[in-house]
Specification:
The chain is α+β, with helices and mostly antiparallel strands and 429 residues long. Helix content is 30%, strand content 24%. The strands form six sheets. It has a four-stranded mixed β-sheet with strand order 21-22-1-23. Strands 2-14-16-15 form a four-stranded mixed β-sheet.
């Protein structure tokens, strides 16, 4: 079992380079099978979810070649039509993008129900409703979702809730369908835009991504492409919060400042100084942290994937803060771990009330999911004494080389592994 051991108290200083966006990569990799040619994808993050998607693609004879540390090629020329039901599918949420991609390619798909972080019920009704609007029939049998259609035809798809996953799946299914599909109340997240840009670079006709109405005019053929994935907004935000938590001075490089506006604005409200440059931000904090309220919302609101990390920071702010989780039903499971470190938090449903404390104290903890794990790292970096974090496989699903990146910034962190090296995408794929 691998763990992180952190001795808190060091202010983070220096520069850190952000990798490619996890959630864009996990959509773009399945999207490449819509082409009949090789796609080169650059700025791929070195995380375990990427290697899991590669293994799933290998199941259907799609080759993933590593060209260098951040570039892969996906070759779908010998893809085979078969159900995607290996165990790995149930371990990674984004495996459900194979539903849209295979449906778009072969007019049929059978994929096991997906896994991923557990923050309450994660329905897929909007995905299925969208597929049905394109003319597909579906059923769920023994944990496998089956979708098929004689011929996919464009249609209007109105989403009852804003869903990143459903927006992406319907884009994937409609990109080669007959005629025009109009997605209304679509998600506007940067990785939805990145997926649309990727598909357009292959010859797709997708307009409006980044707004809540996306128009997809089906095309007959998608060619190969060479495409660079956007920087990871959440990884960047996590280092911004870590810099603020430790009273540090960190320059976060290889980012798109526009994607960080909501995070930046809240950190500034708390007394952090943020200098923005073209592709980097510098984060410093010299004064005590001030309280603030947060409500998570779909983009461009404050991202739910930053809620646990910013809550760790609010634990150390002067006064009472209220965090309202506007996306998921059960995303405060990490709070019990923070309380064991001395945090004063009470949770009622989707609302957490955080009374700032003077200090947190290191203790053994467990990462409940990916971002919950990041919240514990931040708390551990700011706490006095030693914090041990178990279940770090959750963290390594989405943060590349996090231990090394923090070490380079002056953190006192060790990865205790019993017989295991840190994950290296070049070896795992
Ligand atoms: C994606 C991200 C996840 C992030 C989330 C919200 C990936 C792999 N994961 O998850 O990290 O937390 O966006 O930004 O990209 N909903 C329905 N019916 C559906 C689909 C969703 O009711 O068919 C609801 C969900 O219960 C939730 C909300 O819509 O309350 C948002 O979900 P969604 O945007 O679909 O999240 P994911 O795509 O699963």
């Amino acid at each position: 079992m691998e763990k992180f051991v952190i001795t808190g108290g060091n202010a983070l200083r220096g520069r850190v380079k952000i990798g490619g966006a996890k959630n864009a990569a996990l959509a773009i990799m399945p999207a490449s099978i819509l082409s009949d040619e090789v796609c080169r994808i650059k700025n791929i993050p070195n995380i375990s979810d990427v290697s899991l998607i590669s293994k799933i693609l290998a199941e259907i004879n799609v080759k993933v070649r590593i060209l260098n540390k951040t570039t892969i090629e996906i070759d779908p020329r010998n893809i085979i039509k078969k159900p995607v039901s290996c165990d790995i599918v149930r371990r990674v949420r984004a495996s459900y993008y194979l539903l849209g991609a295979l449906l778009g390619k072969f007019s049929e798909a059978s994929v096991s129900l997906p896994g991923g972080c557990n923050f309450g019920v994660r329905p897929i009704d909007q995905h299925l409703k969208g597929f049905a609007r394109l003319g597909a029939e579906y059923n769920i049998d023994s944990g496998v979702i089956n979708v098929r259609s004689k011929k996919l035809s464009g249609n209007n798809v109105y989403f009852d809730v804003v869903s990143v996953g459903a927006t992406i799946n319907i884009i994937l299914a409609s990109v080669k369908a007959d005629g025009l599909t109009v997605l209304e109340n679509a998600a506007k997240e940067p990785h939805v835009v990145d997926l649309a840009n990727f598909l357009n670079s292959m010859g797709a006709d997708i307009r409006g991504a980044g707004t809540d109405v996306i128009k997809v005019r089906g095309v007959k053929y998608l060619k190969g492409t060479s495409y660079s994935i956007i920087p990871d907004q959440i990884e960047a935000g996590t280092y911004m919060v870590a810099a603020a938590a430790t009273g540090g001075d960190v320059t976060i490089e290889n980012i798109t400042p526009k994607h960080l506006e909501a995070i930046k604005s809240k950190l500034e409200e708390m007394g952090t100084i943020i200098e923005e440059h073209e592709e980097s931000v510098n984060v410093t904090r010299k004064t005590p942290l001030k309280r603030c309220n947060i409500k998570t919302m779909p983009h461009p609101g404050f991202p739910t994937d930053m809620q646990p990390q910013i809550s760790s920071l609010l634990c150390l702010a002067d006064g009472t803060s209220i965090v309202n989780e506007g996306v998921w039903d059960n995303r405060f499971r990490y709070v019990e771990e923070l309380k064991r470190m001395g945090a004063n938090i009470s949770v009622d449903g989707k609302i957490a009330v955080i009374e700032g404390v003077k200090k947190l104290t290191g203790t053994p903890t467990k990462a409940m999911d990916l971002r919950a794990g990041a919240a514990l790292i931040i708390a551990g970096l700011a706490a006095s004494g030693e914090t041990v974090i178990e279940n770090i496989e959750h963290i390594e699903r989405g943060y590349e080389n996090i231990c090394q990146k923090l070490l380079n910034l002056g953190a006192n962190i060790r990865r205790i592994s019993e017989g295991c090296e840190p994950l290296n995408v070049a070896r795992v794929l």
